[in-house]
Write a structure and sequence with these properties.
Layout lengths: L4 E6 L2 E6 L2 E8 L2 H16 L18
Antiparallel strand pairs: 1-2, 2-3
Length: 64
Amino acid sequence: MKLNIVYKKEKEWFIGHIQEYPDYESQGKTIDELKENLIEIYNDVQKGLVPDVESFRLLEVTNR
């Protein structure tokens, strides 16, 4: 499984989301804690435990 995580550091916390599910943010004191929290969210989404979830899609564009 490969997940793309988007995150930033705010004071003492790392805050982020899975790229395909930006509506579901989490936080952690460390990158590893943030990663674990986001994997848990991802697993809940895959099990159908998050109602009405829709994933965003990635469109890659090249500039000519």
